[in-house]
Amino acid sequence: MSRSAEAVHRVIKAYDVRGLVGDEIDESFVADVGAAFAKLMRAEGARSVVIGYDMRDSSPTLAAAFAAGVTAQGLDVVRIGLASTDQLYFAAGLLDCPGAMFTASHNPAAYNGIKLCRAGAKPVGADTGLKVISDDLIAGVASYDGPAGSVSDRDVLGDYGEFLRSLVSTSGLRPLRVAVDAGNGMAGHTAPAVLGPIGAVTLLPLYFELDGSFPNHEANPLDPENLVDLQAFVLETGADIGLAFDGDADRCFVVDERGLPVSPSTVTSLVAARELGREIGATVIYNVITSRAVPELVVERGGTPLRSRVGHSYIKALMADTGAIFGGEHSAHYYFRDFWGADSGMLAALHVLAALGEQERPLSELTADYQRYESSGEINFTVADASECVDAVLKSFGSRIHSIDHLDGVTVDLGDGSWFNLRSSNTEPLLRLNAEGRTTEDVDAVVAQVSAEISAAATPEGAVS
């Protein structure tokens, strides 16, 4: 059946499919998405699709509806059941077939969605398939005259854990007490399988019970409020490190032994240094809001830094085009050439654990080697006219601006070690600010000026939040 363009575009976004269950996304809708995806993949030569899903109450039913859409188009379905998103990417690489992961990542319980990939975990974004799928849904997906596909089940959790451990040596590490906050998300399923077999690791679990209602806190560690429990747990247990994962466990956030967050940019620098240690001259990708400490370190370690727009589809495309060994985002997505160019928070966690366990210093001292600047973190504003607000901000800085680029939003270099980026979100109606400087005072001054200009430019209908 055909669907309205408004209904389709509200749910099929730049990177994935996501919406309110019942109101925007239901079994009928995802069955049509499954059919359209299978039709596209069949045209590219695929014969099967692997499907995984997270712990949300709606995920198994929606995944089954999607599978019905796929088999109706003549492709087989391999079900891996409960999975993290990077576990689904592993399956798409292992089985060399396209994949679909049912999750709404860090969004609240009322949401669900689909992350799609091609064989080998290659991305499917707006320009690489999602627009084709949208157009098919609006026009009505053509039926397939051939035989229906089959459905089979395969458990890949153990293989996934073994594969990740094969990429990072954990032999000879000193004993580590590792606190993990799964946020009632999929890390409660994958962390024991990946980290549990490591002899040096004592796993200290927090909120490992799979519960898509997120009874303890939202599974979004990017929000500092959702790290509070882990920070307290690290201090309470005397852990050497704390790890927090989002709902689908593809992002990893780190807390040191003092209970203080470690910036994802710092994690990016640490992992980049390790990867460049085994391949000098390799390319490392970072996005426009990552600390400038990252490209500086990459150059110092003999690598080639490459700047990217924010978003997994852009970085994955660059990973494939350049053969980059590693990529990191300030949102705590980490991409690895050895993991089909896809992102894996659990693999990043293994690198940090190995780096910590290979030497005797506490994590706070180890990570201090990679911290050079102060940053604001991401600050979000809801405004009626983002471009008007950006223009007002640029005008206010005037002659202080050293340079501007527009790779992703607008990045302003003030020439004194301070810079800021303003960009509209691809998934939410927000204007996002990230600022960095040599001192906290420098960052605070930039944030205050930008915030004041956005407040002044905001219309009554678009009050700043």
TrEMBL record:
GO terms for molecular function: intramolecular phosphotransferase activity; metal ion binding. Residues 378-451 form the Alpha-D-phosphohexomutase C-terminal domain. Its cofactor is Mg(2+). It comes from the Bacteria. InterPro entries: A-D-PHexomutase_a/b/a-I, A-D-PHexomutase_a/b/a-I/II/III, A-D-PHexomutase_a/b/a-II, A-D-PHexomutase_a/b/a-III, A-D-PHexomutase_C, A-D-PHexomutase_C_sf, Alpha-D-phosphohexomutase_SF. SUPFAM superfamilies: Phosphoglucomutase, C-terminal domain, Phosphoglucomutase, first 3 domains. GO terms for biological process: carbohydrate metabolic process. Keywords: Isomerase, Magnesium, Metal-binding, Phosphoprotein. Residues 11-128, 160-259, 272-373 form the Alpha-D-phosphohexomutase alpha/beta/alpha domain. Gene3D superfamilies: Alpha-D-Glucose-1,6-Bisphosphate, subunit A, domain 3, Alpha-D-phosphohexomutase, C-terminal domain. Pfam families: PGM_PMM_I (PF02878), PGM_PMM_II (PF02879), PGM_PMM_III (PF02880), PGM_PMM_IV (PF00408). Belongs to the phosphohexose mutase family. PANTHER family: PHOSPHOMANNOMUTASE. This is Phosphomannomutase. The lineage of its organism: Bacteria, Bacillati, Actinomycetota, Actinomycetes, Mycobacteriales.
